[in-house]
């Protein structure tokens, strides 16, 4: 067997340098891979928050209804992995109802998508004020009051058939409290409230309806959370309880993402998929997809929305630089160790 030619010390240093460069290059690739993994990989990932958890959807019913009116929407949202709650709206007055719902929101961990139907829209506009965890407001054929407005004041501008279907019933409560509850007349509920539902379903709604106190419609809103929180709005074109013109006015005023469907007032019962789709759009919207009447592209909020990408890029650059500097220091160290004493 022929003997291998002897290699001098210079060849060993060249091979050592090659191994160091390879390690530095591999480390730099690892940083790039980590950065790619850290960023959302698909559109579906946008549904989750930074902790890998979907926002909680809180559904608020309106007058003459209860939480079961959201059943079809709840089933669909839960199939998509969203935590959902549909608390009882007291229907005693805008001030007390919004305070109660605000306390419910305080019990929810993480981000919230807050949804209101009918009078529930007025409630969420007040209840969400000052709550930074409410990321989106969704209005379903709803009242969307501005500060100083009431349900009555808007209805006077945009009349509907609701006035012909209301029945007033006096009530008594503990401590000598008295007031007036408003019900829908049973023979009018199908036409005015739920015209696109089967007659049998409308009869069940009439029998189980929850009345609203007159204060629910007469009290004025003290705040309007939609001025700070992005909103989505579903307009029901066949609505006879709230005039569709009122719904369009509210949505346009708030710069809401708006969809229109051929539905009665109870769109969440008659068209649960359309309502679910709108809620998911609100839940998954990111950055500039969220309009706000209180913001513009040059304000601090818009600038803040661009920071995550900038931060990620800076992190990758800094990481690669650190590795390259570390590799250079390693090479210098090797050279120093090889110097003859």
| Strand coverage percent | 5-15%
Let me know the largest β-sheet.
Answer: 6 strands, parallel
- The helix/strand order is HEHEHEHEHEEHHEHEHEHHHH
| Structure summary, number of beta strands | 9
Mean pLDDT: 79
Helicity level: 40-55%
Number of helices: 13
Low-confidence stretches: 1-18, 20-50, 294-341
Structural class, from helix and strand content? alpha/beta
Shape: globular
Strand order of the largest sheet: 2-1-3-4-8-9
Separation of termini? Answer: 38 Å
This entry's quaternary arrangement is single chain
What does this structure look like?
The chain is of the alpha/beta class and about 350 residues long. It is built from 13 helices and 9 strands. The strands form 2 sheets. A 6-stranded parallel β-sheet has the order 2-1-3-4-8-9, sandwiched between helices. Strand 5 and strand 6 (about 180-185) form a beta hairpin. It is globular, with a radius of gyration of 30 Å. The relative contact order is 0.14.
């Amino acid at each position: 067997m022929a003997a291998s030619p002897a290699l001098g010390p210079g060849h060993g240093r060249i091979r050592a340098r090659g191994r160091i460069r390879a390690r530095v290059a591999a480390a730099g690739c690892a940083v790039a891979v980590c950065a790619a993994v850290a960023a959302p990989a698909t559109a579906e990932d946008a549904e989750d928050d930074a902790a890998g958890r979907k926002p909680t959807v809180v559904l608020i019913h309106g007058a003459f209804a209860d939480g079961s009116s959201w059943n079809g929407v709840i089933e669909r949202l839960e199939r998509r992995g969203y935590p959902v709650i549909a608390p009882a709206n007291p229907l005693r007055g805008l001030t007390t109802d919004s305070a109660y719902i605000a306390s419910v929101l305080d019990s929810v961990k993480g981000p919230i998508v807050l949804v209101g139907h009918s009078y529930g829209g007025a409630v969420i506009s007040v209840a969400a004020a000052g709550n930074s965890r409410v990321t989106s407001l969704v209005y379903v054929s709803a009242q969307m009051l501005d500060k100083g407005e009431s349900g009555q004041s808007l209805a006077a501008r945009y009349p509907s058939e609701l006035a012909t279907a209301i029945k007033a019933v006096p009530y008594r409560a503990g401590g000598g409290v008295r007031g007036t509850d408003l019900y829908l007349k049973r023979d009018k509920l199908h036409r005015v409230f739920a015209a696109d539902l089967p007659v049998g379903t409308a009869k069940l709604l009439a029998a189980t309806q929850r009345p609203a106190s007159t204060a629910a419609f007469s009290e004025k809103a003290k705040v309007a959370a939609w001025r700070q929180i992005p909103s989505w709005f579903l307009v029901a074109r066949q609505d006879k309880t709230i005039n569709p013109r009122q719904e369009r006015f509210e949505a346009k005023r708030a710069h809401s993402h708006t969809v229109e469907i051929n539905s009665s007032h109870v769109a969440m019962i008659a068209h649960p998929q359309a309502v679910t789709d709108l809620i998911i759009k609100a839940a998954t919207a990111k950055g500039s997809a969220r309009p706000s009447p209180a913001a513009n592209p040059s304000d601090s909020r818009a600038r803040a929305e661009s920071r995550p990408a900038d931060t990620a890029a800076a992190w990758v650059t800094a990481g690669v630089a650190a590795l390259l500097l570390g590799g250079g220091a390693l090479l210098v160290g090797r050279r120093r160790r090889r110097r003859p004493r």
